[in-house]
Specification:
By secondary structure, the protein is of the alpha/beta class. It is about 45% helix and about 20% strand. The strands form two sheets. Strands 1, 4, 5, 6, 7, 8, 9, 10, 11 and 12 form a ten-stranded mixed beta sheet that branches. A two-stranded antiparallel sheet has the order 2-3.
């Protein structure tokens, strides 16, 4: 076995050991007569409950490639976040239950014990009051979907009351647009499909998109324009795994290690690249200033 293969094997074994720690702690405490409060805290952790149930419940975002895509024929899920969830479940030796969700609903589902993890959320101060987050596995860049006739490449150029800008309501796209182009004529639509329809029908001049979502939107409907990154400044907001807020940190510790390991070996980039292919976006289609 080569040194790289040995290191890879040891690292993955360490992840499994971390995952087991929460479950083993409760058993060890019980056998040694540990305090009832400590036993309850460990036994009630999300990680321990996942392993005990043999199932990890994942908030799955319907119609959100490259992260999630559900086959209308088979009901099977695919996408970058599906690959991530499968890898975590394999390490924990549990099954996956995908629960239909949206970005907003996934926060509520985490709070009400409907899911154990949401795979692609941007942490915000408000969200952090009610749920917890892993370390970032990807930095979202933000850009513009617009026809060639609109010559805008910076936030300062977009910050113009004569430019009609679409965003999806409550998203980080809306947050970025209102923060860096507050003078633009911004309209927030309830869904991303409405944003795309507004672009196609000429009700707006352009739309702010996170990079991966913008590229997939254009591939799905080229009539809405082209995607390009917005600069000065280049904005990067983290994508993280979201989990329930709890005192026991076993679940977060395991996921933090999992993120750093898979990001370090380039596995996250591979999952994201493969997810983009689900929307027809090949590696050559990805602008050089978009970093996966």
């Amino acid at each position: 076995m080569s040194k790289d293969s040995f290191d890879h094997h040891v690292s993955r074994r360490r992840l499994v050991q971390l995952a087991a720690a929460g479950s083993l702690a409760a058993t060890t405490l019980g056998a040694s007569g540990g305090s009832a409060a400590a036993q309850d805290a460990s036994a009630g952790s999300t990680l321990a409950r996942i392993r005990a149930a043999g199932k990890m419940r994942v908030a799955a975002l319907v119609g959100e490639p490259p992260y999630f895509a559900k086959s209308a024929l088979t009901g099977e899920w695919a996408g970058a976040c599906v690959d991530m969830a499968n890898d975590i479940a394999k390490l924990l030796e549990v099954e996956i239950e995908f629960v239909d969700s949206t970005y907003g609903n996934s926060v509520i589902q985490l709070q009400t014990d409907k899911v154990d993890i949401a795979m692609s959320l941007t942490p915000t101060p408000v969200r952090s009051l009610s749920i917890n987050f892993s370390k970032s596995y990807f930095l979202h860049g933000y850009g513009l979907v617009a026809p060639d006739s609109l010559k805008v490449s910076t936030w300062a150029e977009l910050n113009n009351p004569d430019i009609r800008v679409a965003v999806d309501l409550g998203s980080t796209q809306e947050m970025a647009a209102r923060r860096f182009a507050p003078k633009a004529n911004i309209t927030a639509f309830a869904t991303r499909d409405e944003v795309m329809l507004a672009l196609q029908t000429g009700r707006v001049d352009c739309a702010v998109f996170a990079a991966l979502l913008g590229m997939t939107a254009v591939k799905k409907n080229p009539a809405i324009g082209k995607f390009s990154m917005l600069t000065e400044p280049v904005i990067g907001l983290p994508a993280c795994l979201a989990i329930p807020k709890e005192d026991n940190q076993d679940w977060k510790t395991f996921l933090d290690v999992w993120v750093e390991y898979n990001r370090g070996i380039g596995q996250v980039t591979e999952w994201l690249t493969n997810g983009m292919k689900l929307a027809g976006v090949e590696p050559d289609d990805i602008p050089s200033d978009v970093k996966l």
